[in-house]
Structures are given as C-alpha cells and as structure tokens.
Amino acid sequence: MASTEDTALFRDVFQANPDPIMVHDADTGIVVRANEAAGALLGRPPADIVGMHVGEFSPPGFSTADANALITEAATSGSAQVEWTTRGPDGESRRVEVSLERAVIGDTTRVVAFIHDVTEIRQQERKHTERSKQLQTLMENLPVVVFTLDPDGVFTYSAGKGLDGLGIEPGELEGIPVYEVYKQYPEIIEAVEQALDGEEVRVTQEVNDLVFETWYRPVFDNDGDLTQVVSVARDITDLKRREARIETLSEATNELLYTRTERAVADTVTQIAQHIIDQPLAAMWSYNSDDDTLYPIGATSEAADFAAVETASDLSPMGPESDENRLFHDGSPTVVEDYQALSNPSAPQAPLRTVLFLPLEDYGMLCIGSPTVESFDSHERFLLEILASTGAAALNRVERETRLKSKQAELERSNEALQQFAYIASHDLQEPLRMVSSYVDLLDSEYGDDLDDEAAEYMAFAVDGARRMQEMVNALLRYSRVETNSGDFEETDPEAVLDRTLDALRMRIEEVDATITAESLPPVEADPNQVGQVFQNLLDNAIEYAVEAGIEPRIEVSADRDDDDVVFTVSDNGPGISAADHEEVFDIFHRAGAHDTDGTGIGLAVCQRIVLRHDGRIWVEPSDNGAMFKFTLPAVTEVSGDD
User: What is the pTM (predicted TM-score) of this model?
Assistant: First the structure.
C-alpha cells in the first residue's frame, strides 16, 4: 500500500493550500518539503527551500538552535507555536503565526509547519489596543466624572479628571453600591433610582463644595431589560461661581442707581469688587483736578486694616508725581504685577504686590490689590472693568445731581425771594396807590369845573394811570399767590371745572355772542381751583382779542391722554400770535402786539406758573387760524379694582 506522503491526493492538497506549509525532519530540522505558498512567502522556488534549515530563514535573533529546540518540542509533545516577523520578497515586513504539528508518515516522524499570515489581524489588534489606550487616557483626563452602575446600583466603572475634586481615584468606587457612597445625598439617590427605573435623568447636584451637572442614561439589551446605567457628571462649580458674580454685579448696578453721594458710590463699588473676585483689598480714589491729586474716598475694612489705617480717608493720596497718578491719566486698566517694583508709589510702606488699577474716566480710580504676586484671569478683569464703567457712570450721575440740587436750591431761594418781594411790594403799594387815587378823585370832584381842557386831560391821565397801576399791583399779587394760596392735588374732573368757568364768564360770553365747545376731557391729578384759573385766563384772552379784532369768538377746548399726562388744547379764531412772541408771551407783564383792550399782561404768566407747579408745561403751537395754546397736567393713575 502506498504511503500517504506519496499519494497524488496529498500532493494536490499540499500544493493547493493557500497558506505556506513546510515539512521538517524531526531530528535535524531540515526542510524536506515546501508548497508553492511557502515559496511565495520566502521569495524562492519550493525546491530551493528543501534542504534548508529553518534557522536560515528565521528572523534575526532566532538561531538554528532555537529552531531545533522548537521542532524537537513539537515532535515530542505533538505541537508548538511561534510568531515571527519576516520580510517577503517585496521587502515588506509580514507577521506570521507558525503552528508546528507532529506527523508520523510511515515509520518516519516529521514536523509539519503551518504558516498563517496574521499581519492584518495584528494591525487591527494594535489599532484596537491603541484606541483603547487613547480612550482610557481620554476618560482619565476628561474634566468630568464617568461611571456606570449595574441594575442593582453598584458601581462597575469610574473614571475622569473630575474624580480629583471629589478625592476619589479612578476605579475606587467599583464594586460599591451607590446607596452606600452617597447615602447623605438624597437628591443623588433619587436620580439614580429614576435611572434604574428606566428614565433618562438630567439634574444639577451639589457634592461637598462642588456643583455637578449630571446625566443618567439607562442602557437596555435586545429584550428590553436594563443592563446598566451610564452617567456623566460635569463639574460646573466655576460656571456657577461666575453666574453668581455676574448676578452680584447686576445687583450692584441696580444699587448704584440709588446712590446719592460720591462716598456711597465708593463704598458700594469696593464691596462689590471684593465679592466679584474674592479679593478683599479694594479701595477707591476721587480725582481733584485743582491739584492733580487722587484722594481716597472708600475702601473695604480689610483694605483699611491691611494699610494699618482707621478709615478709608486715611489712605495715602496719589499725588502728581506718583506712579498711580500716571496710570490714572493713561486711562486704561493696568495690572502691576509687583507694586514693590514701582519707582515712585504713593504708599511705599504698603506690603502690596499685584495690583489692578481701573481708572473711572475723569472721576477717580478703583484699585484691587493682593499681598502676593498673582494673576487676574480674563473673566475677573472683564467683570471688574464693567464694574468700573458702572461706577464711573454713577459718579457722573452723582455729580450732575449735586449740581442740579445746588441749582434747584438756588432757584428755590430765588423763587421764595421773588414771592416775598411780590407779596410785600403789592401790599406796600396798595396804600400809596389808594391815597393817590383818592386825592386825584377829590381834586377832580372839587376843582374839576375850574380846570381848562388841558388840565382836565392831565387829570384824566392821572386817574387812568392810578387805576392801571392798581390793576398791575393786584395782578402781581395774584401771581405771587400761585404758590402760597394753592390747594392740594386731587383727582379732578376738567369737564366740571370748565363748566364752572363758563358759568363765571356767562355774561361776557352772551354779551359778545361767543361760541365755546368742548370735547371729552380725561381726569387729572391737580388743584381744581388753579385748573379753573388756567381755563379762565385762556378763555378770557381768546374772547378779548377776538372782539378787539372784530371777530365773533369761536373757541374749542379738547384733551388727549399721553402716557402719564393729559395734553389740553385751547384754540380760537382770533388774530393769533406771531412766531416771534411764542416764548415771550408767557413773560410777566408782556402783551404781544398793540392792543386797545385793557390788560396787565400777567394772565399767561399766571397760567405758566400754575402749570409748572403741576410739573407740566404750556406752549403756543403754530396755527393758520387764530391762536392755539397747549398745556399738560398729570393724568390720574389707573388703579385696579382689587386695590
């Protein structure tokens, strides 16, 4: 019977196998047979391989002795394995896995080497290993906490840089139930139980002094059963701190709206600066342009203690020659990394190091200091620069309000003096006017018949002058009493006030056949008697000037609501007022144009004084037909029914 080695079937299978195969002599390791694939692997005909020892084509470092030992192991134990890196005929390095199997052919023991190219497999495995390492490195360095829980709530994995803040090593939690680790945090246990029940949960949680934004995601198998809960927790402590600082800054901005003094602004700004960056050494200086010096006006108590002074005002001024004064005039926020390195500091004895100087436009400077050399991050600087800008705006408002209050006080003193003068003058003039008028009347009655025409005319001039002077004094008295004889503001119906005014003017209206129409007039918050004076003066003027011009008076009264005011309009068909007189017409004793009618020219001045008392305004608007007066009074504030 022929041996298997010599059969045609063996040869065909041996040669057709796509993997390289060699047959070795078990005793010597010599190749006694090689297939075509083996020849292709080594880049030589199979016949040339026969007779070679395996050590001749083994990779460097694998000697003939090593090869013989491996073949002997396979011949003795039945099999052996080795993995080589070999270089093919194309020069490319290939990774092969060699399986040595013992085979008894006839009476002869052989070792068959089955060679399998595992280059692609090893490359994939290497890539997988590299990716696994990269993923592990990424997981260990991500600024988050990543962990998984099994269906019983036991940690199966934990990693991430966020563990550092919790004082936990990666993997330290594995095998421990979450109920044990975080039993003192019921909100965490509640979120975990929701996730274990199959619900995806996103929640913000506090652990110790840290704040985490945590996402719990349940994972299910193909049957819909929970296999694990994957969770990612992101440390948002700094974000929350920044949000709190921004909120503090916003509150400070609102608070600064109500500061009324420079010192109050300084106290508010320094306290807020301390809270924004947790830096207690904050102080503020005000600039005096007269001597080009910055004077301290506010500081935190910590800053005063640090400088060994009792109050902020005891801090050192920053004179013209100081480095701080130069930085103020530069006008830009500046960080001095080491205050001790300045050539001419205003307070060389202060143990300051890093200082942030923030000029407040032309009003002063805010300084934030540290006893150590440290940096201000961009976010802190941004918030402090906003605070400085807000502080400068507050100082600007305080300056304007101070000037306004000073001007207001001056005007009030002037107004009081004017009222006193008008009241006293009008009273003091009453008696001599009455005396002049009485004696002129007595002369006229006693000696009038004895006077010639020229003397009689002089006498008439004297009587008329005394009368006109009496009217002007009475008018001045009415003008001065706008404030002194005023009533309280109350909800007033202008329609009712206008009706009373028309009743008072009824005889004059009927005498000249005047027509006065009125539309709906919204209620106002005003002194009803003074509103009546305004209506009466405007209607009286409109009637008088129309009659003087030979026109039958037609007057219209209307009003419209405009936000918090009611705008009244009184228009007529009279001769009108020239544009040049639109402003002067409200001056006391001023009468626009030439008129034959009697009048003191004080009626519109009284109207203006009354309207101003109500925080309103009065003006003349251009009109092609007659005169059009407008004035405003405060509207009645709407009150809900519940109130």
Answer: 0.46
509-546: pLDDT as tens digits:
999 999 999 999 999 999 999 999 999 999 999 999 89
Domain final residue, candidates 399, 432, 449? 399
196 and 106 share one domain: no
Residue 591 has pLDDT above 70, yes or no: no
Q: Which residues contact 562 (CB under 8 A, 6 or more apart)?
A: 632
Round to whole Å and give the CA distance between 280 and 193.
Answer: 44
d(CA 257, CA 561): 30
Residue 207 sits in the same domain as residue 277: no
Do residues 151 and 67 both lie within one domain? no
Question: Of the candidates 182, 205, 240, which is a domain's last residue?
Answer: 240
| Distance spanning both ends of the chain, measured CA to CA | 122
CA-based radius of gyration for the chain: 53
**Rounded Cα–Cα distance for residues 151 and 228 (Å):** 6
pLDDT tens-digit map of 415-464: 777 667 666 766 676 777 778 778 877 877 887 777 788 887 887 888 77
The residues, any chain, with a CB within 8 Å of residue 10's CB and separated by 6 or more, are: 4
Q: Are strands 364-369 and 490-492 parallel, antiparallel or unpaired?
A: unpaired
Cα torsion angle, 151, 156, 162, 166, sign: positive
Structure tokens at 441: 């009347």
Which secondary-structure segment (H or E) carries 18? none
Task: Decide if 41 is inside a domain.
Answer: yes
Return the half-sphere exposure (C-beta side, CA atoms, 13 A cut-off) of residue 499. Answer: 8
Query: How many CB atoms within 10 Å of residue 595?
Result: 14
Residues 199 and 89 reside in one and the same domain: no
The DSSP string of 235-273 is E-HHHHHHHHHHHHHHHHHHHHTT--SHHHHHHHHHHHH
Q: Specify if 563 maps to a domain.
A: yes
Amino acid at the residue 643: D
Indicate if 532 and 592 belong to the same structural domain.
yes
Range of the domain at 150: 142-240
CATH classification at residue 36:
3.30.450.20
Between CA 514 and CA 554 the distance in angstroms is 6
Orientation of helix 494-504 relative to helix 528-548, angle to 10°: 50
Q: Encode pLDDT of 470-517 as tens digits.
A: 777 777 677 766 666 677 899 999 999 999 999 999 999 999 999 999
- CATH number of 383's domain: 3.30.450.40
User: 153 and 111, same structural domain?
Assistant: no
Output the six-digit token pair for 479: 């003008």
Would you say residue 419 lies in a domain?
no
At 395, which helix (H) or strand (E)?
Answer: helix 378-447
Return d(Cα 455, Cα 509) in angstroms, integer: 39
Phi-psi region of 545 (alpha: psi -120 to 50; beta: other; left: phi over 0): alpha
Q: Kindly state the average pLDDT of the residues 209-222.
A: 89
Q: Are residues 507 and 598 in the same domain?
A: yes
Domains contained in the chain, number? 4
The arrangement of strands across the sheet holding 355-359 comes to 293-299, 281-288, 364-369, 355-359, 334-336
Largest distance between two CA atoms of the chain? 190
Q: Which residue has the tokens 């929640």?
A: 203
Is 372 part of a structural domain of the chain?
Answer: yes
Same domain, 250 and 383: yes
Q: How many angstroms separate the Cα of 634 from the Cα of each of 483, 564, 605? A: 18, 6, 20
